[in-house]
Write a structure and sequence with these properties.
Layout lengths: L23 E15 L1 H4 L7 E3 L7 E15 L11 E12 L4 E10 L2 H10 L4 E11 L2 E10 L6 E11 L5 H7 L3 E6 L2 E8 L6 E10 L1 H4 L11 E12 L10
Length: 253
C-alpha cells in the first residue's frame, strides 16, 4: 500500500465549484449512515488499482452501511423515471484516495429492489449492484430499513436497521464531514480505474438513535464482521444529486 503522489485534497462539506454536465440525475432520500472503524490493511486489497484507503487520522479508515430511498433516476438531463428509477437501496462502502489525492468512495455492494436498474448498472458501469427484496417503513418517529439478497448472492445476505432520527446538526464534527463529504466514486471500469464525480447540496445531517442493527452485508463484502456498535450513526432527509463524466485517476481534473 503506497501513498498518493499528492497530499489528499481537503475534506469539504461543500460540492466542487466546477460545472458538470449531468450524465445521471437522482435524489437520495431518508438516509441512514452507519460507520465502523476498520484496519486499512483489511480494506486495501478490496480497492481498485491506483487507490489506497483514505484514513481519518493517519491510521483508521471506515466501512459504511448506508440505507436510503433512491428517487427518480434520470439520464442525460431527462426527467427522472418514477417506477424503475425509484427504489430502496443499501450500500456497503469504503473510503479511497487516488494518486492525485482525490478522495472518493468505493462500493463493495449496492443492494437494490429493482432488477432492471441492477442489470443496467452492472453492465454499463460495472458497479456491484445486487437484486434484493427491500423495504423502508416509517412508524411514528422511527424508520426501518430491510434488505434480503436475491441475486447474484450470497443469497440471503441481509440487513435490518431501525433508527430514530433526532435533531439537526448545526456543526458536524471533522469525522462526520470525512464520512459524508464525498464528491466522487472510484470503480474498476473495463480494466481501468475510473473516477466518477458527483455534486449535490451540503448534507442536512441529523443525530440518530440506533434501535436495531442486524446485518451481514459488511462481511458479505469481504470485510471482517463489525464488532460492537457503530462509531457513527447519522440520518439525513436527503439531497438531489448529479453525476458527471467518468475520469481515470491521473487524467485531467
Amino acid at each position: 500500500m503506497s501513498l498518493p503522489d499528492r497530499n489528499p485534497e481537503p475534506v469539504s462539506p461543500h460540492p466542487p465549484a466546477a460545472p458538470m454536465p449531468p450524465l445521471l440525475t437522482q435524489s437520495w432520500l431518508d438516509l441512514a449512515f452507519l460507520h465502523w472503524a476498520v484496519d486499512p490493511a483489511d480494506v486495501a486489497p478490496l480497492l481498485p488499482p491506483g487507490t489506497v484507503p483514505d484514513t481519518f487520522d493517519g491510521a483508521t479508515t471506515y466501512v459504511g452501511l448506508v440505507a436510503f430511498r433512491m428517487y427518480r433516476v434520470g439520464v442525460l438531463g431527462l426527467p427522472g423515471i418514477p417506477y424503475l428509477g425509484t427504489f430502496p437501496e443499501t450500500n456497503v462502502r469504503l473510503y479511497s484516495v487516488d494518486g492525485r489525492g482525490r478522495r472518493a468512495v468505493v462500493f463493495r455492494s449496492l443492494d437494490a429492489s429493482r432488477l432492471v436498474p441492477v442489470l443496467v448498472a452492472r453492465a454499463a458501469v460495472r458497479l456491484p449492484y445486487v437484486w434484493s427484496r427491500m423495504g423502508i417503513e416509517r412508524s411514528g418517529d422511527t424508520v426501518t430499513y430491510t434488505s434480503r439478497r436475491r441475486w447474484p448472492g450470497p443469497r440471503g445476505a441481509r440487513s435490518r436497521i431501525v433508527l430514530r432520527p433526532g435533531g439537526a446538526i448545526a456543526e458536524p464534527t471533522a469525522l462526520e464531514h470525512f464520512l459524508t463529504g464525498r464528491w466522487a466514486l472510484h470503480t474498476s471500469l473495463f480494466g481501468r480505474t475510473a473516477y466518477l464525480p458527483n455534486v449535490h447540496p451540503r448534507w442536512p445531517l441529523h443525530r440518530a438513535e440506533l434501535l436495531e442493527c442486524d446485518e451481514d452485508l459488511v462481511a458479505a463484502g469481504g470485510l471482517p464482521a463489525p464488532a460492537g456498535e457503530p462509531m457513527s450513526v447519522l440520518y439525513s432527509p436527503g439531497v438531489p444529486v448529479r453525476f458527471g463524466p467518468q475520469r481515470r485517476p491521473g487524467s485531467g481534473a
